[in-house]
Fold this sequence. Notes:
By secondary structure, the chain is an alpha+beta fold. The protein contains three helices and eight strands. The chain has helices at residues 41-51, 83-86, 102-117, and strands at 2-3, 6-7, 10-11, 16-17, 64-70, 75-81, 122-124, 127-129. The strands form four sheets. A two-stranded antiparallel ribbon has the order 1-4. It has a two-stranded antiparallel ribbon with strand order 2-3. A two-stranded antiparallel ribbon has the order 5-6. Strand 2 and strand 3 form a beta hairpin. Mean pLDDT is 79; it is low at 53-57.
Amino acid sequence: MELVVFQDRMLVQRPVILQKRKPFTIRFDWKNSPKKSAPTLKEYQRQKAQQTPEQFGIISYSGLYSYIYITGEEVRHEILISLLTFEKWRPLKRVNDGFLEVEEQKVAGEEIQEFFSNRNPVVIDVVTVKPLVQHISSLA
């Protein structure tokens, strides 16, 4: 997974490839924003889109995309993952292997929420905060 960090929509450092079981830490200067000469979020997205125009910047539809937003009020982690990719971690019960019935979506949503609620701990000022799953899209 590649980590790209922006502060006030400005690139903080070069992208970093995250490695399994090797934590990565970055420190922010909350009083001083990055220099205006750093690429902006829009410039970075434009460069990425030009690198893979046929895929609209999406490198793999079978992968996972993770976005972390940190503000004064919250730390939000958005995870974009297909159901089939998620099921590599935790298979969901369903009648038809190729389709998730509308009635099965509520149960699947609860199982997905439970799965993510017990992972991805966040530590803020040495206090571990348990994730709160607020939204699962494409499930009723």
